[in-house]
Structure formats: structure tokens, C-alpha cells
Amino acid sequence: MKRTRIAEVLRSGQIGGRYTVMGWVRTRRDSKGGFSFVEINDGSCLSGLQIIADQGLDNYEGEVLKLQTGCSIQAQGTLSESPGKGQKVELKAESIRVMGWADPDVYPLQKKRHSFEFLRTIAHLRPRTNTFGAVARVRNAMAHAIHTFFQDRGFIYLHTPIITGSDCEGAGEMFKVTTFDLNRAPEKDGAIDFSRDFFGAPANLTVSGQLEAEIYALAMGDVYTFGPTFRAENSNTSRHLSEFWMVEPEMAFCDLEGNIELAVAFLKEIFASVLNTSEEDMAFFNRFVDSSVIGTLEGLVSQDFEVMTYTEGI
Amino acid sequence: MKRTRIAEVLRSGQIGGRYTVMGWVRTRRDSKGGFSFVEINDGSCLSGLQIIADQGLDNYEGEVLKLQTGCSIQAQGTLSESPGKGQKVELKAESIRVMGWADPDVYPLQKKRHSFEFLRTIAHLRPRTNTFGAVARVRNAMAHAIHTFFQDRGFIYLHTPIITGSDCEGAGEMFKVTTFDLNRAPEKDGAIDFSRDFFGAPANLTVSGQLEAEIYALAMGDVYTFGPTFRAENSNTSRHLSEFWMVEPEMAFCDLEGNIELAVAFLKEIFASVLNTSEEDMAFFNRFVDSSVIGTLEGLVSQDFEVMTYTEGI
Asked: What is the pTM of this model?
């Protein structure tokens, strides 16, 4: 039977319907009644699905009772209303297949809150946490909303160069890109001989696609970039990233008013879209990370923006 | 009056309706009847719009008769059926405003076919040519189709790192990224002391987001990357680019058959989408660049793919 994502089971699963789900075990609790609750998550949404594994299963003693956080399983069964608290539905398993074991003495993620500092040391596993999963889903929703916003308005998406020889108005310190052996680059007249480097000239990582976007705007009308950008600024704050994705629209035949209109519409549409498509993840952030985030976004969506001149602003 | 894009005028403009269009002059022909044909293009589609400028216009003698290829104008007027060959509609101008002049002695693009080698020397203007405009529109249509394909199937879009310390199975030669002064990098025990470079370790431009995508697939289920990738291979052929955008799906709980299914569906959907959304641009490529391109894509969309083992293949 084809796999159904947990997000789909929870959104539109039919009570009494048979489903196959696959995911990673978050918790297992054994009831004295001779069955176990196994909660699995497959990353398609924040919520997991509760699997009811009865002792009648062939591998109940041999495998189900050994399931631990991080094990990967396939469960096939019938969707039922859940009498328990915390979930509306659960899957009564007809079979459970273990696809991967996770030794609790070694597997570092357990059902508790881990610090970001600790998670940084296990970057290969942190997407399995609620926070990183929610970040990935919301980032995906925002990226999609950004493309949809511009495509709906007839903007052309550009891939501007990442490796570049220009420094775009000195927007920031740049990383150098080279194939020279460091400290063994050829010199000429006392300076590095870049004519012998890969591109025959000094090359850097872009700080902005603006110059190329302007060129295309002056041929295609309305364009946008959405790609990675770099800053070699040595300041370790949450406001300075050395690598980040940036959106840059450029419009020909547009004035300041049209620009303001686009910026306001952009913010409202992206935030409205995320509040709508990522309700569960945003509620999670609102509860555990920033209790004002939903209120702030709803305000930005529903209220008018004040427009003022720079002089008024300062 | 708000600007209407030429693509929209040609697709759904009403005969007798009044429109304001803006764009760049491709040609001007003066009729002995006391009026001029001014063809403008605004990049929203391959076709331009023919503007009929009558000698009755205030600035006919002073400006319209001086319009040359590359001038930027705004024309306001009424859409009419065109009695001439080559276009169905034309705009009878009530006013023409010149926004930018282009001196024909200096402006290098003229109404003729330029070689790619020449266009390379005027990269800031080549998006105004038919070929580069069509490439930009088709690339945009494909990028959008790629995102739509994966989003419709519940895949999570990932931005994997561009600057990386790993080299992903040696997929290719890598560019080095550094903030050291070349030939002045600090050394320790006879080797470069990367602990003092920006990231405290050697850093390169990614050759693939696969490793990070695999990590996320093993937490989120189905993911994809679509971002820039780099190869420092010094071979100047049309098959080797040092910078290009790559799509990499990764799926948990999937087998070879599911993988084949996805790959086939991907190709069929992207090609069908481009044939559908970019009909005019594809017809242009089919006529001037590769007379088999539409036939090839239609074949890929409509015919079954042959599936065979590697052993059968070789």
C-alpha cells in the first residue's frame, strides 16, 4: 500500500480508512492492557501520529517493545477516533515493520528540549526536532509565497551570478574566490598575477544581484532575484550572516509610489500566506519562541502601512 | 493611466480599449501618408506592439521622427485591428512621451542579427535581444514549473549551504573561499593556518547540496534543493560550467521504482509546462536555434520512457 504522509492523514484521513505511514519514533508507552502507543513523526507536519500496537502483532514482543526514539518504522492499519487526550485520531496497526533501529545509548536526540548549542553539535540530526522541522517548513512556505507573489504579477525570476568581479556599491566585505594554492599564487610586478587565476581576474562572492537585475529590468520590465548572497564581515551577531538568501525586485517604468505599493503588498501577502499555510508551525513558534509573532504578523497583514519621507522618519 | 504590459495587451486587449504601454523602440518606419510605425518591445513577450504615431501629435516633428532603436517611450492610445501584415492589433497613439534617447551612433544594438560573441561584449544590453529575452522568459517559466512540481507533491524546498567544508563525494574540482590576502596567509608548521581564516577552517564553494538534502530527507521525508552549484574544472566547453543551478530531490521511504516515477513525471511536467506557457518563445527557438526542439520536447511529454537496468543500458 502506498505511503500516506502524516500531514495528509491528519488533514483528510477517513475514519475507518486503511493507511500506510512511515516515520521516526518519537515516544513509545506500553499499556498494562497489552498494547503500546507509538508516536511517529514524518516531518510533513509538526504533529505526529499515534500508532496503537497490540500484543497480537507478530513482532510485538520481539520488536515493538524495543522501539526507541529515532527508530524508523512503517505502520499499516486503520484510522480510528482516539479516545485519548492530545490527538483526534490514531492508527490501529495491523502490521509494524522496523526499517531502522536507533540505540538509545548512542542516539543523542531524546524526547526533551535540547539547547540550540547542543543541537549545533549534531547538525545531521537536528532537523528531526520540532523547532528545526518547523523552521524548514515555514521557510519553504515563505520561499514558495515569494515566488508566487512575483510570478502572479508577471515578474521574471533571474539567477544572477554568484561569482562576480564587481562589488555592487560596496554593500559589504567580500569573500575571495580562487583556485590558486594560497601562498603560492604567481606574482607579476610585485602583485598577484590574477590573469593566471581561474577567471583571469580577481573574483569574489556576490554581495547583491542588483546590478544584473537592473540590466534585465531595463530589457524585461519587471524582474526579481532570489538567491544566496554573502558578507565577509567578521561579527558574530544574530544580525550578521556570512551567507543568506535575498530577494531583490527591480522594475522599469516604475516610480517611488509604485515601489512602495509593491513593498507593502509583498509583506502583506507573504505574511498572510505563512499564517494561512503554516498555522500549526506558527502556533508552535508563538508558544515556545516568541509569544508576539502571530500578533505582529496579523497586524502587518490587516493594518495600513504609514508612508513618510525620510526626513519625517528621522 | 496605469501601464499595461504588451504581453497582456496582445493576449487580452480589447479593440477600442485605451491603453498605456511603455517599452524600448525596436524600429521606426515613416509613411508618406504623414504618420510613423513605431514598434516597441517591453520584454514581457517576444512580440512587440506596433504604435501608429500620426503627424498630428504635438511632438511628431520634434521627437517622434527622431526615435531610434533603443529609445525608451511611453505611448497612450486606442487599440485597433491592424490592416498591416505581421500583427493583428496596433495602438493608435494619442500621445507619445520619450523617456530616454539612444544615439544611433553609439547604441550598439540595431535591428539585425548580432553574433553571440559580439553580444558578450555588451552584456549589459543583450537582454534586449530576442534570443536573450526568450532565454530569460523560458528559464523563468522552467524555474517556476520546477518549484510548482515539487510543491504540489509536498516536497520541502531547502537552501543548502553554498560555502562548505565538505566536498560531497568528490563530485568535482572546487573553488576556494577565503578572506586571506593571497600570498600573505599565515602559516603554521609549514602549512596554511586555516584556523585564522574567516571560518577557522578551509572553505570551498559547494559542488552539491546532496549531503544536506539527505539529512533533511531523513527528518522531513521529501525535500529538494534548487540553487547554484560550482565546478572549478578548467575546460571551456559548452558542457562544463563553473557556475550553474541544480535541482536535487531526496526522498526518504522511497525505492528505485518511486525514484524512476518521480524523474519521469518531473521531465514530462516541466517540458509540458514550458511548451504551454512559453509557446511563442519556443517557436522562436525552433525556428532560429534548433529546429527539433519542440518535436523533441513533445515526444518526451507524450511518449513512455523505456526503463532498463544499467547492464542492459551498456
From this structure: 0.96
